[in-house]
Amino acid sequence: MFCIHKYGEIKSGYQYCQKCGKAIAAPRPACKHEWVTTETITVHDCHTDKEKSIIFVLRCAICGEIKSTRIDS
Q1: Is 65 inside any structural domain?
Q2: Can you give the pLDDT at residue 46?
Q3: Ramachandran region of residue 12, left (φ > 0), alpha (ψ -120 to 50) or beta?
Q4: Cα four-point dihedral sign 28, 34, 39, 40
Q5: What number of other Cβ atoms are within 10 A of residue 16's Cβ?
Q6: Which of 8, 26, 44, 66 is the most interior residue, by most CB within 10 Å?
Q7: Residue 47 falls inside a structural domain
Q8: Which ranges in 5-55 belong to alpha helices (H)?
Q9: Distance of CA 16 to the CA centre of its chain
Q10: What is the residue range of 48's domain?
Q11: Is the pLDDT of residue 1 over 70?
């Protein structure tokens, strides 16, 4: 049977198709990240020992997602 799914309300973490009853994991709401710097790494040129860039490791205080940002000199 072919069904063009039409998912309804969320129940117990799942969404069910209103036509065939297929269940999928309910989509999580988007996080409004609150980034906190957990580590700062300074990268030096191995020949001149001058600072090349700084890498910031960030973690969201709400969901725990991790990302990094790099600033070049």
Answers
A1: yes
A2: 85
A3: left
A4: positive
A5: 19
A6: 26
A7: yes
A8: none
A9: 25
A10: 35-72
A11: no
Whether residue 8 is predicted with pLDDT greater than 90 in this model: the reply is: no
Provide the 8-state DSSP code for 28.
P
Alpha carbon distance 16, 28 (integer Å): 15
pLDDT at 71: 93
Number of domains in the chain: 1
Each residue of 16-55: pLDDT tens digit? 999 898 999 887 777 899 999 999 999 998 888 888 999 9
pLDDT of residue 66: 95
Q: Give the tokens for residue 11.
A: 């129940």
> Could you identify the residue written with the tokens 């969404």?
15
- 61 belongs to a structural domain: yes
| Residue in the structure block whose two tokens are 């063009």 | 4
Q: What is the pTM of this model?
A: 0.56
In angstroms, the CA 15 to CA 6 distance is: 10
Cα 17 to Cα 10: distance, rounded to the nearest angstrom: 10
